[in-house]
Structures are given as C-alpha cells and as structure tokens.
Amino acid sequence: MDFPKVFPLPDAWLLHRVSYGETDAMGVLYYAEYLHIFERARGLFIRQRGMGYAKVEARGILLPVREAWCRYRSPSRYDDEIHVRCGIVEWNRASLRFVYEIKNPDRDRLLAQGGTEHACVNRQGRPVGVPDWLKELFGRQA
Amino acid sequence: MDFPKVFPLPDAWLLHRVSYGETDAMGVLYYAEYLHIFERARGLFIRQRGMGYAKVEARGILLPVREAWCRYRSPSRYDDEIHVRCGIVEWNRASLRFVYEIKNPDRDRLLAQGGTEHACVNRQGRPVGVPDWLKELFGRQA
Amino acid sequence: MDFPKVFPLPDAWLLHRVSYGETDAMGVLYYAEYLHIFERARGLFIRQRGMGYAKVEARGILLPVREAWCRYRSPSRYDDEIHVRCGIVEWNRASLRFVYEIKNPDRDRLLAQGGTEHACVNRQGRPVGVPDWLKELFGRQA
Amino acid sequence: MDFPKVFPLPDAWLLHRVSYGETDAMGVLYYAEYLHIFERARGLFIRQRGMGYAKVEARGILLPVREAWCRYRSPSRYDDEIHVRCGIVEWNRASLRFVYEIKNPDRDRLLAQGGTEHACVNRQGRPVGVPDWLKELFGRQA
Questions:
Q1: Which chain B residues have a beta carbon less than 8 Å from that of D40?
Q2: Is the pTM value of this prediction over 0.90?
Q3: pLDDT digits (tens, 9 = 90+) for C113-128
Q4: Alpha-helix runs per DSSP H in chain D
Q5: Complex prediction ipTM
Q6: DSSP 3-state percent helix, strand, coil across chain A (nearest 5)
Q7: Alpha carbon of C52 to those of B34, C136, C138: distances in Å?
Q8: Domains detected in chain D
Q9: CB-CB: which of C21, C36, C43 is closest to A79?
C-alpha cells in the first residue's frame, strides 16, 4: 500500500496510552495492537463526523476490512502516550481507504503509519456502492 | 470462588503454546490471556462431548460468563507449552460452573487455576433453565 | 473474592470507549477484556497518585497479579462509553488488593465489578515487603 | 507488499481453531487477530527448523517486525479450523520477509494472505547483518 504525501483532511487525532496488556516480552507495543489502535482512531474519525459507526451499521452499511497494512518505525513502550491520526485517502465505487499515522506527544516524530481498505457491504455481506449519505458524512469537517 | 478438592470428570485437556502476543513487558503470559485460554479449553471440553458450542448456540442456548476468577501461581513464558484442564463443577437451575487448571507439560506442577460461572439464556438474553439435552451432553464421557 | 460495601478512597475514574476489537460474536464486550480495562484503570489510579507504574518498576518494585476476579452484571456493546473506578481495598505485608467498578456514563448503574491481588516483588521476582514510599504514594489524594 | 506466485519452501502449516475471544461483533475473526495467528505460524516455522525463536533471542538475535500486511479474502467464524502456512520469501543483508496463507481445512480455498518484514537486531536494538547460522537454520528442511 502506498501512503499519501500530504495527510488527507478532514482528520481525527486519537490520544492513546499504551497499556501493559498491549506490550510484549520485547517490552514494546505488540505489532497486532497497532491494528486495534487504528480501529479506535477510525471509530473516533467517524464519530467526529457526526454519527458513530454503530449507527452506520444500524442503517444497514457495514465496512469490513479487506486489507490492512502497517509500517513500524519506532517502538512504543508501556505508559507512552501516543497520538494517532486518521483520515480517508481514497474512495472507490464500493470501497474506501483509511490511512493512519502514529506520532509522539509533540507530534514531530513518526512512530508508525498504516492503512486499511474497507469494502462497503449490506447486512447480507454483499458489496454495495458507497451510499451518498456515507460519502457526504465522512467528508464533513468536524 | 472455591476450587474443588478433586477435579470433576469428565474433563478435557488442551495443549497451548504461549505466543509472543500473549506475553507482556514483564516477559510473562499476561493475566487477561488466561481467560482466553480458559475459553479455548472450555470450547474443547464441549466439542469433545460431541457437539461444538457453535451448535449449542444454533439450538438457541447461549452461555454468557457471569463471573470469572483466576489464581496465578507460577508465570508462563514465550514458547512454553502449557496443559489446560477443564471440567464442570456445579449445575444450578439456570447456570453452571466450569473449573480450570493449568499445568506444566509433565502435569506435576500447578501454574494457575480458575473458574467461570455461566448463565443459561435464550437468544433474547433471558435466563432459561438448563435444558436436559445440554446437561446430558456436557456430562458425557469422551 | 469479596467486594467492599463502600468504595475505598482515594479512587480514580477511567473513561473507556468499547472498541470493535474488544467485542465478540455475541456482540458484547468479551469477558477477558475486562481485565485489560481494569489494568488501564489501575494504571490511571497510580499515575494520578503522582508517579506512573513504569517509574515504580524503575525503582525496582514489580506488582504481578496473583489473583483476579470479575463479576459481569450487564453487558457493554460497541461504542459504549463506560466509566471504570479503581481503588485499593487492602494492604498486606507483601501484597495489596485493588477493586474495580464499571458503570454507565450516568454512573447510576453497575455493569461489572472486580478485584485483583498483587504480590510485591523485586526485579528477581522475590516477594518483598511493601515499601513505605509505595504505601505513602498509593494513599495520596489526587 | 507483493505476494510470491509460488509459495516458498521450506514451509510450515499451523492448525488454528478460531476462539470466541478472537471474533468480533460482526461474528467473524477480528482483523488484528490475523497478525497474532501469523506470529503463531512463524513461531512454528522456526521451531520446526530445529530451534525455537526463544533460543534465537537467547543467542542475541531479535527479529522485530518492521512491516506487516494482510489481505482478507473470506471471513472465518467461531470454531472454524483454519490452516495457516508460513515460509520465508526474501533475505536481505539485515532483514528478512515471511509470507503467510490461511486456508480452509481442505486447503483448497484461500481465506487470507499476508506478509511480515523483520529487522535483524542485537539486544541493544541495533541492526546487524543476518548471521550465517540463522540463515542456515531457517533454510533447513523439517
């Protein structure tokens, strides 16, 4: 997956504190936990647009992950506060792509970056075109 | 929760290899992971009786956890093989209790023990009496 | 484990948003995740006393969990905001006990409660008496 | 990341049973859990070569993940048995890349595929050239 040169707007910033349970025997944030944290940032992004993802699902649209990717640049440790940025980088007919950056509290050092591609499906799991209301919603400024 | 003096039969033994993702910065199996592993042993116990828990749910009976408990005696580390025993210690009208032991590969050292109490509910989440077929099923020898 | 009638002070309240990754196929917060959330609340409690747990460890004192317990009263779902309270209920010579409550945002409904007992050990894992500075620290008002 | 046309040999196959704790509210294996399962398959691959990863670390070589990637093709559900294949696709001076496939029990349907790139570092976290013994070890037939 490729990462955009300029981070897309609108964006959302999640503050996350690394817990003990997220670390591993190397003493650092375990690599799978980044995808959990990306999901938290994605949830915040959607909520800040004006409607939580739970409501998106209640309207009959699900966004299962079709692809995920993460580049680990600098490890995080227990009790570190990390800042996670999320935005949408690409819309397709029946899918969309989020990108993520994790930074230190001063937001001047990149710790990790990643992306997730989501299909747009109905409750039966069938691909559907991204509805206009969803596109409009996710494009809103906070 | 109290632990029985003699481990109840029938029982099931799960072999589990500690993964890196299950360890924490202390270098040991993280305390919440024991509940995941208990769940795996419980699933094996049920499957060995002759019907997986997925089928129990398909028949309309769910067994949500109402209480869980674990005593950590000796830590496990990455790549350790641990042996997890599971059995049912108590039946009530609308609930049942499982107990668990975790041992080393020689099964002569107790690493942890625990218990979980489960309500018996229908798909709407309402408590129902334990059905006879479930009681008969879970009491079967392997 | 028994739960105190009056919640001990000082206490700390953690706000936690249930993520998708914390839910299970029943659609609710998975039972092992409560122990992760208790750990987050415990970490906040310690930080609010004036020194993070990372620094406690850096001073040579580790507090591994010896026993954990949780009673699940009412399930939480994706995107729910839950309020987690943490305090210390008991001091022993070489151990201490935390208790936890999880409530709804109005804090008028109890969703879960639990407890963890921690040994006090040095870097070699040997039990040591709770140091005076730790007892003083953890007893401080925020 | 690109995926090879022919799966590299030697390889290892891990059998994995999807637990309840690995599923999410969509009723499927949560996307971050794939990285845990890849790690289990990688650990098996290394163990089958003749020396567990714990021993590799004890010899002073750590292999932290620098990049991870997964493509989700078909969801897995509670109690599904999945077969996870792991092999090494690329060696660089100070890094190596693993690839993974997840298949159904008949191994005729691809459920997911992925890859991880690992730096080769010493205990101080400094990049070091891949030692000959490691390269020889990981290339061994089972």
A1: 17, 19
A2: yes
A3: 999 999 999 999 999 9
A4: 33-49, 53-58, 132-139
A5: 0.96
A6: 25, 35, 40
A7: 25, 14, 11
A8: 11-139 (3.10.129.10)
A9: C43
